[in-house]
Structures are given as C-alpha cells and as structure tokens.
Write a structure and sequence with these properties.
two-stranded antiparallel sheet, alpha+beta
C-alpha cells in the first residue's frame, strides 16, 4: 500500500503540534504552583505583622493608666492643705474651745469661762434690753508680736449666736472686771470680762478675735473660739 508524501507530512505535523500542547500545559501548572506557593509564604508574614500591631496597641493603654494615678495623687495632696495653719501673713482661721489657747503670729487669746446668764438683781438700775439676756466671757489677750497691739473689744471682738445673729457688746453691764481696751506692748497681757446681749431662745455660739486695723502686716488670721458648750 503506497502512502503519499503529503499524508506523511501531515502526520508529522500533527505529532509536533501534540508535543507542543503538552509542553504548554506542563509549564502552566508549574506557574500556578509557584504562585500558590508564594501566596502561602506571604500569608504568615501578614499574620505576624497583625500580631505585632495588636501587641503594640495593647501596650499603649498601660502607659496611659500609669500616668493617671500620679495626677490624682497630686490633686489629693493639694486639697489636703489647711488654710489656717500656714506661715505668718496667711489668711484663715485658728480655732479653739473654752479653756484652750489660740495662737497666731501676733497674739494669744484664751477664754477661760462663760457665764450664761449673767445674774441681774431685781433692783439693779442696769438691765438687758427686753427680750435679751447678758452672757459674759472671761478673756485674756497677749501680744506676741514685736509691734504694739491696739486691742479694743469694739473693733477686735465679734460674737455670733447659734442662729448666726450678731451678739453686741453691752456697754452698761457692770459684771465682773471689765476688759480694758489698750495698746499692748510685746509680751503684755490684758484680762477681763466681756458681756454680750443675746436674744432669748438663742445661745452664744462663737467669739471671733481679729485686730486687722492695728497692723497691715504680720499674721492676719482670725481666732475663733467655740463657746457653745
């Protein structure tokens, strides 16, 4: 059986085409495999990057929370200062009770006794106003500054009742030894009784002492003595 030359050439061409197609398919699968491999290698790196970012963000609040306590601590320390216990020249209150000495840089004050009510005889010419009674305190004042202290019960002493009303110093009471207002030199002490008019139904609560008009310098704190008990 004779085979023509053209048929043999056609068969050879078919074999060449078939081999080329196989080579193309094998190369494509290799490229796909390489792509898949590089993709899988990149995935762990991105995962590690995300983990590092999470750790960084979780560590950030720690520094913030550590700074907060120091701020609150300094606030509580400043709020604990006593406005009445500072150095000379500071304003505020020095508190005491009957029988206790109250001291500032300028003076020492003590109320040793409270008489409530002051006894008044029926035939006495001087009596409290209607609806009031007399309450007396025995006070001592010592000048502890280096300057003269002009102490006057009219300008240096202020009394209040338990209803926050002013109790005026009575000028007509002759009870005890009347407190003499005078200029006290360094180390001088004045002692005497001060009588206040207090409305009926109220109690003498406090006596404040401050002679701010005697000096524009020095310890300007007021002394408050609780006489309610």
């Amino acid at each position: 059986m004779k085979v023509s030359r053209s048929a043999m050439l056609a068969a050879a061409a078919a074999v060449v085409l078939s081999a080329s197609a196989c080579t193309s398919v094998e190369g494509g699968s290799g490229a796909s495999s390489n792509s898949s491999s590089s993709s899988s290698e990149a995935a762990p790196q991105s995962s590690e990057s995300s983990s590092e970012q999470a750790q960084a963000s979780s560590s950030a609040p720690e520094s913030s929370s550590q700074s907060e306590p120091s701020e609150s601590s300094s606030s509580s320390e400043s709020s604990s200062e006593d406005p009445g216990s500072g150095p000379e020249g500071q304003s505020g209150l020095v508190r005491a009770k009957v029988g206790e000495e109250a001291k500032t840089g300028d003076m020492t004050v003590k109320i040793s006794k409270v008489v409530d009510p002051v006894p008044v005889s029926s035939d006495s010419f001087m009596k409290p106003d209607a609806g009031k009674r007399w309450v007396a305190v025995n006070m001592s004042v010592t000048n502890t500054s280096s300057k003269p202290l002009n102490f006057s019960t009219l300008f240096c002493v202020d009394a209040k009742t338990d209803q926050n009303q002013t109790a005026d110093d009575s000028l007509f009471s002759d009870y005890g030894t009347k407190f003499n207002s005078s200029a006290l030199q360094k180390g001088d002490t004045a002692v005497g009784d001060i009588t206040f008019e207090v409305p009926t139904g109220q109690k003498l609560k406090q006596v404040d002492v401050k002679c701010s008009l005697s000096s524009l310098q020095g310890d300007q704190r007021a002394i408050r003595i609780d006489v309610s008990k």
